[in-house]
């Protein structure tokens, strides 16, 4: 037993429910519209329709529904009906059109489908003289029509037996000049070739322009529907040329073609307008075969999608029945061939029920596309049921299966497209895998060897970095031990001298206390540098990033260090260069001004410690298209080449390096490097021993949208 979650149940059946509601609402809306139109339009009573107050010109068209006079088994001309003596001897039977005469009681007996009759309706008009149009649908199975005694249209040959009558479906839109007064419409009908006879579709009257526009619109819509079905059918059949194993596309394409061809003969009968000379029996057999083979094509398609839910035995049975009924459509003569459709309509209803049941099982088993298949099949089955009831004259709304099929085609095309897309992805994946395999084992070995070499080089670099870091760590521990030990030893000596009374003079004691205070201040500075560096490495330091223009940056640091360096006996100069085109917008850097001030202070005072009195320190600002570069140049002792790569290392300290000065912790430049890195920049050094050093850092300019 398949178990499904409640959310799955709600999700799946919610869309099915919405689709059914929309379909039902559409059908109900059409039905309501038709009912409302029928109630608002006048109806014929006892063979007379009064349109004197209707206003035919304003309404455009009107269906001539209601009670007509039918003269059963009589073929009367307008002249005969106009003769008082002849008319007095004829007995008219009222019939509410549109309706087949099979259900009309003539002398208490239903006459059946075969026979002939004359239909008559008088229409009262008060409109002035104008061009009118009279639409006669295809009538089963031959007719001849008069308006005011003038013959206006005919289809086939009206006869009193099967030998003298000739069936033909020819819908007509008749244009005639109305000179005023009532209309007398007379239609002779005979039927010996169909199980249902008479005028089973509405006759319409209206102004010629309105009738012509309405017919063109209806034909355009049906042609669009038929063309869509035929196009989809040919498209899916064409897919077989690309993928012969995809039988589902073949079955679905055949189904669309069969139903599309059948739609030529139903509805408004597009085929009868375009090719009126085709033999009636040929058209009937084509329509029946398309119906009989369309159902097997549909169930075979569903079997290709869901073989475990749609049983192959049922598919073979429906296919055999379709072939048998199609053969009967060619072999059995009319009218008996038309009696095969009610039996196959029952088979269609049973097949539709089984199909919906199978799709429900596929949904419960979470088959791909089962929801869309159920929606499409449900829409098509609902409209097919309406058509079956309409063709049996049980309801007035019908010939809508083509629209239900469009919904089915859309949903099914989505399923097939999804399957094709998955198949293409699988093929592409397999092709890519095959290409990779065909490259050869030797190529793979070379790739893997190169990869191992890269990994080995990376490991060697990591080992070198670890060794260097370990060396730096030992240097740091050694230097920190020295920097902590020496001050502590001195402080201890000063304190012991004070305790032992060696220093008794107040001035000397004050001097010793100042020395102790200076040493403790240095230790605090060392500890603070270590704490700040650890926070920078862990990215736990707070930065107040603000946009600052390059001009404001240069003005801020231009004279900041001049007095202090002059007090140290050094010369100080600042120089600014701009390499940006004048047309460019103002250069902006996003920085924490206090942190950058700390960087520049560390670098400048490092230069001060290694520059003799009377020396020169220069501060250069260079602005180009992408960055702001700050350079600190001195003419001091310089940096040894072996120390140059390590002066920014957080664990590196050497007495002759630029990272420290005279007992410093060796952390100043390491802190500067961490701050510059946080700003997305970089810091570097250049030097020659005895010629001074240049320490520079770069800050990126903010982009236009930042």
UniProtKB/TrEMBL annotation:
The keyword Phosphoprotein applies. Residues 445-479 form a coiled coil. GO terms for molecular function: ATP binding; phosphoprotein phosphatase activity; phosphorelay sensor kinase activity. The keyword Endoplasmic reticulum does not apply. Its EC number is 2.7.13.3. It is found in: Cell membrane. GO terms for biological process: cellular response to phosphate starvation. Keywords: ATP-binding, Coiled coil, Kinase, Membrane, Nucleotide-binding, Phosphoprotein, Transferase, Transmembrane, Transmembrane helix, Two-component regulatory system. It catalyses: ATP + protein L-histidine = ADP + protein N-phospho-L-histidine. The chain crosses the membrane at residues 12-34, 219-242, 249-274, 286-306, 313-332, 344-364, 371-391. It comes from the Bacteria. It is a multi-pass membrane protein. GO terms for cellular component: plasma membrane. Residues 479-703 form the Histidine kinase domain. SUPFAM superfamilies: ATPase domain of HSP90 chaperone/DNA topoisomerase II/histidine kinase, Galactose-binding domain-like, Homodimeric domain of signal transducing histidine kinase. PANTHER family: PHOSPHATE REGULON SENSOR PROTEIN PHOR. This is histidine kinase. It comes from Paenibacillus elgii. The lineage of its organism: Bacteria, Bacillati, Bacillota, Bacilli, Bacillales.
């Amino acid at each position: 037993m398949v178990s499904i979650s409640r959310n799955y149940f709600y999700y799946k059946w919610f869309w099915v429910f919405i689709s059914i509601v929309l379909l039902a609402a559409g059908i109900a809306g059409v039905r309501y519209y038709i009912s409302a139109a029928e109630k608002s339009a006048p109806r014929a009573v006892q063979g007379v329709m009064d349109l004197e107050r209707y206003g035919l010109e304003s309404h455009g068209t009107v269906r001539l529904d209601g009670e007509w006079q039918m003269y059963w088994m009589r073929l009367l001309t307008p002249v005969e009906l106009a003769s008082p003596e002849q008319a007095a001897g004829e007995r008219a039977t009222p019939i509410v059109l549109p309706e087949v005469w099979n259900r009309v009681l003539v002398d208490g007996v239903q006459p059946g489908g075969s026979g002939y009759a004359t239909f008559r309706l008088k229409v009262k008009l008060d409109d002035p003289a104008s061009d009118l149009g009279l639409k006669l649908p295809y009538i089963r199975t031959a007719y001849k029509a008069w308006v005011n005694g003038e013959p206006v249209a005919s289809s086939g040959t009206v006869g009193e037996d099967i030998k003298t009558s000739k069936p033909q479906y020819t819908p007509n839109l008749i244009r005639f000049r109305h000179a005023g007064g009532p209309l007398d419409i007379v239609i002779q009908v005979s039927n010996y070739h169909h199980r249902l006879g008479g005028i089973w579709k509405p006759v319409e009257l209206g102004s010629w322009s309105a009738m012509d526009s309405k017919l063109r619109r209806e034909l355009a819509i049906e042609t669009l529907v038929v063309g869509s079905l035929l196009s989809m059918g040919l498209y899916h059949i064409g897919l077989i040329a690309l993928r012969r194993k995809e039988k589902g596309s073949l079955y679905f394409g055949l189904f669309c073609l069969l139903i599309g061809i059948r739609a030529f003969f139903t509805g408004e009968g597009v085929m009868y307008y375009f090719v009126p000379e085709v033999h009636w029996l040929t058209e009937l057999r084509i329509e029946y075969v398309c119906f009989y083979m369309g159902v097997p094509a549909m169930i075979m398609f569903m079997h290709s999608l869901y073989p475990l839910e749609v049983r192959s035995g049922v598919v073979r049975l429906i296919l055999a029945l379709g072939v048998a009924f199609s053969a009967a459509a060619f072999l059995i003569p009319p009218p008996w061939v038309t009696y095969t459709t009610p039996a196959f309509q029952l088979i269609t209803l049973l097949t539709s029920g089984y199909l919906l049941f199978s799709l429900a099982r596929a949904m419960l088993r979470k088959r791909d596309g089962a929801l869309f298949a159920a929606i499409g099949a449900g829409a098509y089955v609902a409209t097919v049921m309406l058509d079956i009831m309409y063709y049996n004259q049980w309801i007035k709304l019908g010939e809508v299966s083509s629209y239900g099929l469009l919904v089915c085609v859309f949903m099914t095309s989505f399923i097939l497209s999804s399957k094709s897309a998955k198949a293409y992805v699988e093929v592409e994946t397999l092709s890519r895998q095959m290409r990779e395999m065909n490259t050869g084992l030797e190529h793979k070995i070379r790739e893997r060897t190169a990869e191992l070499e890269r990994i080995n080089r990376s490991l060697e670099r990591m080992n070198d970095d670890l060794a260097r870091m370990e060396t730096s760590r030992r240097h740091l521990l050694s230097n920190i031990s020295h920097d902590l030990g020496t001050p502590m030893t001195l402080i201890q000596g000063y304190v012991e001298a004070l305790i032992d009374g060696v220093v008794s003079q107040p001035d000397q004691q004050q001097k010793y206390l100042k020395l102790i205070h200076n040493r403790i201040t240095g230790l605090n500075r060392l500890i603070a540098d270590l704490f700040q560096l650890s926070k920078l490495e862990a990215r736990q330091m707070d930065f107040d990033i603000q946009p600052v223009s390059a001009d404001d940056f240069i003005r801020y640091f231009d004279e900041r260090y001049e007095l202090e360096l002059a007090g140290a006996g050094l010369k100080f100069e600042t120089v600014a260069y701009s390499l940006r085109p004048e047309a460019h917008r103002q250069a902006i850097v996003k920085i924490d001004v206090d942190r950058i001030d700390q960087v520049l202070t560390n670098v400048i005072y490092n230069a001060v410690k290694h520059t003799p009195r009377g020396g020169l320190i220069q501060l250069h600002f260079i602005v180009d298209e992408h960055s702001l570069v700050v350079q600190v140049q001195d003419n001091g002792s310089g940096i040894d080449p072996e120390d140059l790569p390590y002066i920014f290392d957080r664990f590196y300290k050497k007495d002759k390096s630029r990272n420290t000065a005279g007992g410093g912790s060796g952390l100043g430049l390491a802190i500067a490097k961490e701050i510059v890195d946080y700003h997305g920049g970089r810091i570097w050094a250049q030097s020659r021993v005895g010629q001074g050093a240049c320490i520079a850092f770069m800050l990126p300019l903010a982009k236009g949208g930042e």
